[in-house]
Specification:
With 81 residues, the chain is mainly α. The chain has 4 helices and no strands.
């Protein structure tokens, strides 16, 4: 039950980040790319195609691999409670 609640929370948070990112692409005050990156990281836990995308980003830009891994560990700990 608890894992189900955290999964719904992650999906909701990811979709919220995605919406903010899309709005941020047209509104100059909001950093759209930042929210899109956060959405990809949060959604990559539950959605396989987002996990493949994040894996591609890690392989394309190796300097981002360490921050991405740190965020994955943080999100994993958050889900464990």
């Amino acid at each position: 039950m608890r894992k189900h609640v955290f999964r719904i929370f992650r999906l909701t948070l990811g979709l919220l980040f995605l919406a903010l990112g899309l709005i941020g692409l047209v509104v100059p005050l909001l950093q759209g790319w930042l929210f899109l990156a956060l959405a990809a990281l949060v959604l990559s836990i539950d959605l396989p195609f987002m996990a493949r995308f994040v894996g591609w980003v890690e392989s394309r830009w190796p300097g981002l691999a360490h921050p991405i891994q740190r965020m994955r560990r943080f999100l994993g700990k958050l889900g464990e409670g």
